[in-house]
Write a structure and sequence with these properties.
alpha/beta, 3-stranded parallel beta sheet, two-stranded antiparallel sheet, 27% helix
Length: 164
Amino acid sequence: MKVQCRITKTHPVILHAPGGGPTEPLKGSHPKHQTQHPTWQTLLKHWQKSPAPEPGPDLSRELTVITWNTSQNKSILELSLEKLGVPCKVLGRGHRNWSNSLKLEIAIKFLTTVNTPYVLALDAYDVLVIDHPVKALEHFRQSSATLRAKMKPEQAAVISKVTA
């Protein structure tokens, strides 16, 4: 499946329909997507029917993909990465009393174990990866964007800076 942005004429690798929560992954992330994001349902249907693109290169030494999902059910993100053959580390699986404020705490602890130079953190139920993440990584490397993060577990700040 290929999507084109009407404004930039580019082809995104990752699609995001913010605001979802876990329900039925292949039918949509959240009921409000049906009204706030009417295109989301159409995109999901097309994605579900589309064949997987050609496998990309092994990114295991370059990129770690993470998400958060407390459910035992696979999310849209997990299913889309699985279709692409891209591993994803799911944080928070089985966690009780979840709050989104735990995302940062859990991620900071996990990041101390990561051995790759890049980490891609994506929401589980409202993000769809439609092409191999190597394209997003290549775009990031070619851009002037930088990400600076303090990874000590006792620090609760992640600071991003985009330079032009």
